[in-house]
Amino acid sequence: MTLQELTTPHSLTWCPGCGNISIWAAFKNAAMAEGWDSTNTVLVAGIGCHGHIVNFVKITSFQGLHGRALPVACGLKMSKPNLNVFVFTGDGDCFGEGGNHFLHTARRNHNITVILHDNGIYALTSGQTSPVSPHGFKTKSTPQGNPDEPINPLALAITAGATFVARAYTGDIPKLTETMIEANNHQGFSFIDVLQPCVTFNKQFTHQFFQENTYQLDGSYDPTNKMAAYEKAQESGLKQIPLGIFYQVEKPTYESQIPSSMLRAGDKRDLSDLFKSYT
Amino acid sequence: MRKTMPAPVFSIKRVFSLKIGGEAGQGIKSAGLLLAKFATRAGFNIYNYIEYPSLIRGGHTVMQINVSTDVVTGPFLKCDLLIALNQDAIDKHHEELVDGAGILFDADKKYDLSKLGSDVDVFPIPLSKIAKGSGGLELLSNTVALGAVVGLLGGNINGLKTLVNQEFDDKGAEIAQANLESLQAGYDYSVKNFAGKTKAILKEENVLSSAIPQMVINGDEAMALGAISAGLQFASIYPMSPISNILTILAQHQEKFGYVYKQPEDEISAINMAIGASFAGARSMVATSGGGFCLMTEGYGLAGATETPLVIIEGMRGGPATGLPTWNEQGDLRFVLHAHQGEFPKIILAPGDAKEAFDLTMQAFNLAEIYQTPVVVLIDKNICDHDQNFQIFDTSKYQIDRGKVIDDVNPNYCRYKLESDGISPRAFAGSGNFFIANSDEHNENGYSTEDASTRNLQMQKRMTKLQTCAQNHMKGPQLYGPKDADLTLVSWGSNKGPILESLKNFSNVNYLHLTWINPFPARELESILKSSRRLLNIECNYSAQMGGLIKEKTGMEIANNLLKYSGRPFFVEEINQKIESTLKGDPA
């Protein structure tokens, strides 16, 4: 795939400086490096600013309903396990409307990659609080400050049974590209929490904030220890936001448990013997 | 061969109705099914009707096994022989016993029989004592009772023993043996003690011996088998009465016949998974009841907007909310017609019995792919749960039709290309053809757009599919009975059974059976309705939903309605009575 081949005639509809642009760039870099195209890869998106990405990448895609990208991806992957399946979802899409699907998709360990566009706010509906917005966060829907405690996406993914859990941010496109490739190469449910700014509606989590407060996990960190990963996922605060692979473990994927005999063409079946068992 | 219909006698006398009543957990359903299969193998026709509560132990369960030398298609109020496994069964059903009926019960239980009429034959049998003596537990009381019934009704006990041997094959020799001994002991007891009172109901001489083997099958089983036959590749079904048996069958046979069944976390996931699988090219289905379909509503329109083929089985039970989980209602007709915001083409089919359910399920898989849109098979709980005998299903004429699928890779491929029949070429995800299956309004490639003229053209393209379907596939209503009649009954779904049963008693009444709900065969229906002398609309709901639809589509109002929303089906006697009063001119 060349950049030209990945380009669609649709012009970008994100704000200048939006984190989605970095995710888009990183994904195209990864696609070019790995040869992802419409013969081997499918994208599934939910609804929110993130979902527009399907219009800007020339790889076959499904833009479903708000919160429902995951089950579409599961059905797709179970039917065609050889395809690379990427799910693009937002923090509202994934943890608000789609929270139940997230838990169950993770525990079933479907062999797909979920890229969370995590801007901490509902942007397409013009700035309301999201399930990951911090306590006290002021938005159009929480002018007195958010009374809810936020979901911790990484801790939730680890608890729910994801087998590859990483965090990246949109200020480092090469690292994000690399993480996307690693996530796809991982056999199982891969989750990347991508911290991104919303330049229009989120004045707290800006590019500069992420630049100043994130750090990369180094070689001394062991991503195979589940409890340590869960603990690491709790780390936050100024200069204390870790990036990298928090948790990675090998487990049978859902798809590896589907016998090939179950993946048959949609041909007519002869049930005469089964009919006889009803006589 | 089964006998053809004899001279018109009230069908109530031609059908022997046997009831087994007791608690949930006493094995009533399996006993009833054994008896039905046994009778069918002996050359009789059967129709089973079961009432059970939404619990696993306790409560009142009753199964009615209707046996006849003629085809029998519906439940009756009357009872010719009651097998009472507890006092409740006697108290609840003694009024249904007709003159000369019998009641069979455990002689050692101190049941209060004071309510029984003097014309009822009493058959006390020490059921549990015999069961324990046959090496079984008290649990085998119902098996002893079955053997006793065969003795009372002149059947051949060896036939039932052969059947039990086959059915208990996988449960171990000891269990099979205990059951066989219980059967024989019950049979011996009734033959010895009630010699003068036996009836020749199940006597094999009553039917010709060269009977063609018949399936005893209910709607759930028929739809599951129909789906597999039709090339099912993916099913995601969340358990819910009355369609849970579909998933039991699908889960069991997936490796043998080659498809994936997945139990999802909820019905929202179910329908989205099936849409994802269909997007990948799999012939896909979901099944649910009205409550689950509430959750599927958003996915219903998603399939319509993205033009993704999908078969949806909606098994109706009493609503709203949790409603009557194990009872019947036809309350979801308007729901499946109008669910989801906006407008999109949907095909809705409503089978009237298990055989129609089998055929329409198979057809639904083709229609979904031909028209690239959701197809609903709307079915009553009455059909889902109730066994009837049919000739072994014949699928030789069925051909898989996957619609307009392109195999080659085309750089200029348009998933939503404007076509005069409304049907664009379909490519599967992963085929190399680029497209966006887009829930946003989209252009021919699938790119999101809010352009007014593109919106209009795509909307028109999608809705045109319904007209194409009406021209190419829609079937008109089916007319049963004489062409010229004093009274025409109009109905749909499981009401077909008791109506056809009732029709056997009236030479001047016919029945118009509707299976196509959307698109709707308005013109054909209108011409029949216009030439009818008198009309009666029959439905299991409060507001005559089909009557309303007929009025909307044809402008004709059927003023005379027989409606029922108690969760119970129509019984043959109720239809008989309404026909009689309507023919007499009684407006009610």
What does this structure look like?
The complex is a heterodimer of chains A (279) and B (588). With 279 residues, chain A is of the alpha/beta class. Chain A has a single domain (3-276), classed as Thiamin diphosphate (ThDP)-binding fold, Pyr/PP domains (Rossmann fold, 3-Layer(aba) Sandwich). Chain A is built from ten helices and ten strands. In chain A, the strands form two sheets. In chain A, strands 2-1-3-4-8-7-10-9 form an eight-stranded mixed β-sheet, with helices on both faces. Chain A has a two-stranded antiparallel ribbon with strand order 5-6. The longest helix of chain A has 16 residues, at 19-34. By secondary structure, chain B is α/β, with parallel strands linked by helices. The longest helix of chain B has 21 residues, at 173-193. Residues 1-11 of chain B have low confidence and may be disordered. Chain B folds into four domains: 11-212, Pyruvate-ferredoxin Oxidoreductase, domain 3, CATH 3.40.920.10; 217-391, Thiamin diphosphate (ThDP)-binding fold, Pyr/PP domains (Rossmann fold); 404-473, no CATH class; 478-583, Rossmann fold (3-Layer(aba) Sandwich), CATH 3.40.50.920. Helix content of chain B is 38%, strand content 19%. At the A-B interface, strand 2, helix 3, helix 5 and helix 10 of A face helix 2, strand 7, helix 8, helix 9 and helix 10 of B.
